[in-house]
């Protein structure tokens, strides 16, 4: 995804563009409209060609969504309309299509490879294109929605990690691609909710990939690292190595499950449980907290009456148990994927639940790596409330077109049954011309 640092001539050749993105989360729906201004963003983010200047933002509580999946079309449509209309009013523009994140449909990463026998001469551009076409054709046979199809590396006679095989000799050239797929029905339902609001999807981007694009710096991308997005209903991870997005895992668990545990464990309403978790909760339960007493409001109608007191350590134990379980499941998934060594020494935490007290320490212990909180980088005009880790995915959706040239997922759907089923070109076939022309 990253090329060499952009030259001044290249920079001048680029045009400003307006990009609209929609982060449909389990707890919040965010629409951002940004003017993308050609720039060299600086020494940390060399893959970026444009800087985003936010001109419109709409933000509302998500309705009809559960763990990233649309469960009520009418309600989801209302949230989308609210968020998009607010952003449109602020920006003074009318939007008809957007780049949207995807957490639904049990996203799954696999390696899609294709090989080519070489004649007795050095590898040329022709062979590179031929092996790419073969890999894309192979991906076309997958019966799930292909969200991303990104090159990982070339192999020459079984030797991995060849970045550019042009001019090299060997007898067999192989291309390995990261194929990220999702179940078709949840993708279609997401598209339906958006179409009902008279909008369409430009392209879909896996949520943790977007979060990584917004928060990771060049050294992390080069050395290998993982971005974990801990949202309200999902926790997902994107693994990056040598500037490539190579693997993802998604769990249908997030901050909302912590809130439900607190509500059940302390016998209180969900809204009180949420407040207690955010204001007083931590994933670190210390003995000092045994003496720190907090008030839990009662479930009754008259909430000023009754209620009960508990030691803060009880709240923290409930919060810690769920988060620990989630991180351990993620660790098992990373180990099972064979990508553990690729992750390197660094994990970046994003998503609203990343703000839980003590989370970096717990993640450091369970994942055995350095951990930092990731905030969206290289974007101007975000209000203070949107500068935190919960907005990483939304900002990453604006970065995606700048690195999308490598993504061959759209080729998968050109002229296939999926396109016909949708009745639109939809997300299922299109990285529209403006993206290709502007970046
Ligand atoms: N300051 C905070 N401390 C702890 N938790 C927080 C804080 N702020 C928000 N959260 C939690 O973050 C979660 C929401 O995160 P986020 O906004 O990233 O979710 P989402 O994008 O809507 O959902 P998802 O990505 O899972 O579909 C909620 O569970 C909320 O309780
Ligand atoms: Mg999210």
Automatic annotation (TrEMBL):
Belongs to the FtsA/MreB family. It comes from Roseitalea porphyridii. This is Cell division protein FtsA. Pfam families: FtsA, SHS2_FTSA. It comes from the Bacteria. Its main location: membrane. It is found in: Cell membrane. It is a peripheral membrane protein. One of its GO terms (biological process) is FtsZ-dependent cytokinesis. GO terms for cellular component: cell division site; cytoplasmic side of plasma membrane. Residues 19-215 form the SHS2 domain. Keywords: Cell cycle, Cell division, Cell membrane, Membrane. Self-interacts. Interacts with FtsZ. Cell division protein that is involved in the assembly of the Z ring. May serve as a membrane anchor for the Z ring. InterPro entries: ATPase_NBD, Cell_div_FtsA, FtsA/MreB, SHS2_FtsA. CDD domains: ASKHA_NBD_FtsA. Transmembrane segments: none annotated.
């Amino acid at each position: 995804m990253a090329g060499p640092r952009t030259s001044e001539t290249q920079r001048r050749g680029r045009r400003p563009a307006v990009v609209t993105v929609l982060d449909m989360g389990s707890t919040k729906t965010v629409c951002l409209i940004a003017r993308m201004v050609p720039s060299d963003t600086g020494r940390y983010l060399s893959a970026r060609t444009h800087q985003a200047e936010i001109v419109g933002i709409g933000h509302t509580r998500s309705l009809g969504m559960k763990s990233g999946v649309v469960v009520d079309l009418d309600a989801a449509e209302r949230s989308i309309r609210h968020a998009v209309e607010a952003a449109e009013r602020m920006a003074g523009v009318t939007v008809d299509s957007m780049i949207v994140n995807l957490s639904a449909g049990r996203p799954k990463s696999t390696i899609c490879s294709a090989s080519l026998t070489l004649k007795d001469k050095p590898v040329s551009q022709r062979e590179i294109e031929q092996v790419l076409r073969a890999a894309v054709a192979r991906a076309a046979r997958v019966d799930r929605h292909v969200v991303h199809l990104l090159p990982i590396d070339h192999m020459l006679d079984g030797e991995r990690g060849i970045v550019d095989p042009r001019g090299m000799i060997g007898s067999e050239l192989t291309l390995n691609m990261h194929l990220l797929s999702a179940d078709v029905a949840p993708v279609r339902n997401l598209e339906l909710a958006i179409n009902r609001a008279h909008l369409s999807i430009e392209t879909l981007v896996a949520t943790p990939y977007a979060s990584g694009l917004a928060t990771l710096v060049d050294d992390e991308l080069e050395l290998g690292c993982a971005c974990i997005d801990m949202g309200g209903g999902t926790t997902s991870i994107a693994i990056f190595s040598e500037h490539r997005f190579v693997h993802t895992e998604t769990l249908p668990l997030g901050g909302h499950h912590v809130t439900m545990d607190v509500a059940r464990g302390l016998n209180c309403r969900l809204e009180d449980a949420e407040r207690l978790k955010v204001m007083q909760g931590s994933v670190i339960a210390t003995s000092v907290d045994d003496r720190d007493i907090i008030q839990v409001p009662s479930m009754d109608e008259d909430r000023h009456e009754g209620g009960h007191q508990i030691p803060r350590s009880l709240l923290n134990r409930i919060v810690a148990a769920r988060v620990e379980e989630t991180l351990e499941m993620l660790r098992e998934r990373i180990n099972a994927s064979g990508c553990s060594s690729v992750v390197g020494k660094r994990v970046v935490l994003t998503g609203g639940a990343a703000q839980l007290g003590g989370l970096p320490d717990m993640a450091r212990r369970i994942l055995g790596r350095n951990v930092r909180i990731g905030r969206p980088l290289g974007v101007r005009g975000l209000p203070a409330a949107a500068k935190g880790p919960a907005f990483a995915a939304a900002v990453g959706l604006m970065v995606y077109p700048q690195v999308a040239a490598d993504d061959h997922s759209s080729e998968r759907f050109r002229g296939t049954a999926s396109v016909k089923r949708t009745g639109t070109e939809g997300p299922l076939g299109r990285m529209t011309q403006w993206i290709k022309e502007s970046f």
